[in-house]
Amino acid sequence: MDLDRTPSEIAASAAEEIRALNHRTIKSDSYPTPPDLAYTAGHITSLVQRLSQTLQQMETGIHALDEGNKIRLADRHPSEVSENDVADAVSAVVFGLSTAREALGRAEPYLREANKVLNGLGGPWPEAGNEED
């Protein structure tokens, strides 16, 4: 785990890996056996669980920036900005992050259930006479 990168760099790398997964699995034959699909589903379930924590920590981060007076509205001169304007922006960010976290929380049990069923599936039995010892 390379923790010398910035959060933004790590997120960009993660996004590119998901993009690669999407391109790699665009064809229906990308998963040769049910276990291949199950392993992928298990890792995606872990990803959703971890993303929820990431969003919570981003909420904590925006609050820390706000409490430290380290936020400004980039598109307006400070003389045109009230404390309420910044507070409204912070509230909008927190609302978006917490709503996304709640949505991930709703998706997680469905992913776990799909993964549970996938883990009970196997590929076809070998045909008679083609069995390997």
Describe the structure.
By secondary structure, this protein is mainly α. It is 66% helix and 0% strand. The protein contains 3 helices and no strands. The radius of gyration is 22 Å and the shape is elongated. The chain starts with 6 loop residues before the first helix and ends in a 15-residue tail after the last helix.
Count of discrete alpha- or pi-helical segments spanning 4 or more residues: 3
Which stretches of 5+ consecutive residues score pLDDT under 50?
A: none
Give a quick account of the main beta sheet: strands, pairing sense, barrel closure.
none
**Distance linking N and C termini:** 40 Å
Average pLDDT metric: 93
- Following the backbone from N to C, one meets helices and strands in this order, namely HHH
Which descriptors would you attach to this protein?
133 residues; 66% helix; elongated; mainly alpha
Short description:
The chain is mainly α and 133 residues long. Helices cover 66% and strands 0% of the residues. The mean pLDDT is 93.
Topology:
Blueprint: H1 7-24, H2 34-67, H3 83-118
Helix pairs in contact: 2-3
